[in-house]
Amino acid sequence: MSKTVLITGASSGFGEACAIHFAALGARVILSARRQHRLDELQQKLSEHTEVHTLTLDVRKRDEVAAAIANLPEEWQAIDVLVNNAGLALGLDAAHNASLDDWDDMIDTNNKGLAYMTRAVLPGMVERDRGHIINIGSIAGSYAYPGGNAYGATKAFVAQFSRNLRADLAGKHIRVTNIEPGLAETEFSVVRFHGDIDAAQNVYKNTLPLIADDIARCVTWASEQPEHVNINNIEVMPTCQTWSALSVSKESS
Ligand code: NDP
Ligand code: 8X3
Predict the structure, then answer these.
(1) SS3 call for 158
(2) Residue of 155, 90, 86, 88 lying closest to 114 (CA atoms)
(3) What pLDDT digit, counting tens, does each position of 193-242 carry?
């Protein structure tokens, strides 16, 4: 694969695994996240296989995002694949108790950050009439669960934003895919529970969850389809996870 791939949230979890998988396919990769030391470590590891560039960036910062993309070295400007993966869940409290700071952070990262990255990279793709935007949504964008409130809503945004991008790109050779994972063990729950390792480990205890490699395979598979094939979305859960009945609250008689 001779593509240039920019991955946000490459310092951990799905993003890191996507970088490893794309590098193994021979793609040139731009690794982006806030934690520079993690990007440096990954760059060192992947540089044996391919060309790697790092971009330390907070996707919530609109001007920084625009400047970072505009100022990429010339040889890194032609991005073929943007993996909009940076994101997080914060908290699992019911809406009436949830932290507004957490809600702000999720909306700023999962929605505004994803939109800023897309808006910065897409004009180049349109100019070249070539490209693929792969967004990382979630099953939480389709199925409600207690405590999912703002997080699930941010992922519903990702689903509809992905579809609307395709509508705007009618007639162009630019693909848009939304990958919607279920339960997956990464640093996701440590972040969700604000660093409480026990609470995070408890989420996966006695389960066989998805791992980051599973999602990276979905991402690279979507990318490797022939150019005329657009995978609209992939919803993927571990076999240990499924739906359950809707809740009905009964009044006491
Ligand atoms: P991780 O916590 O392991 O990775 C999250 C990544 O996002 C990190 O690299 C982090 O980097 C980056 N990130 C977070 N905030 C910002 C920011 N403001 N600017 C730039 N980068 C940021 O979790 P996952 O790999 O599991 O999550 C990746 C995506 O997958 C998220 O969008 C998540 O919502 C989604 N997802 C996760 C599921 C799961 O169960 N794990 C299931 C479904 C979807 P850094 O902190 O260095 O900036
Ligand atoms: C992560 C999956 O079920 O924890 O997006 O919301 S879930």
Answers:
(1) helix
(2) 86
(3) 999 999 999 999 999 999 999 999 999 999 999 999 999 999 999 999 99
To the query of whether residue 151 is one of the catalytic residues in this protein, the response is yes
Given a contact cutoff of 8 angstroms between Cβ atoms, the answer to whether 132 and 174 are in contact is yes
The pTM assigned to this predicted structure is 0.98
- pLDDT tens digit string along 125-151? 999 999 999 999 999 999 999 999 999
Residue-range domains of the chain with CATH: 4-236 (3.40.50.720)
Ligand 1: which atom is nearest the Cα of residue 59? Answer: 19
Substitution site in 114, 183, 204 for ligand 2 pocket (most atoms within 8 Å of beta carbon): 183
Report the C-alpha gap between 95 and 29 in whole angstroms.
39
End-to-end alpha-carbon separation of the chain, Å? 66
Those residues whose C-beta lies under 8 Å from the C-beta of residue 193, and which sit 6 or more positions away, are 92, 199, 200
Q: What is each CA distance from 174 to 7, 12, 126, in whole angstroms?
A: 17, 27, 7
Cβ–Cβ under 8 Å, residues 134 and 222: yes
